Amino acid sequence: MEGLLMIARTPKQIGAAIRRQRRKLALTQADLGEQTKLRQATVSAVEAGEPGTQIRTLCDILAALDLEFVIQPRTKASVDEIGDIF
Description:
Blueprint: H1 11-24, H2 29-36, H3 40-48, H4 55-64, H5 79-85
Helix pairs in contact: 1-3, 2-3, 2-4
GO molecular function: DNA binding
Protein name: Transcriptional regulator, XRE family
InterPro entries: Cro/C1-type_HTH (IPR001387), Lambda_DNA-bd_dom_sf (IPR010982)
């Protein structure tokens, strides 16, 4: 996703971005689970934005998908406008 900035403010938006990248790479949840040593059910929960995801788990998934966190001040766009991106 070089050059494409995705803004995610909620767990569901983060999960949607992860799902989109996983599919772009033609990986199943099981494939991603094998790469990260996570269960497929854990990958599914992260993609669904379920609560309780450990930061380490999220970082492992992002690394496997060649994605990264960027922490910066919030833009002025509303959550609804950002939700439209997904």
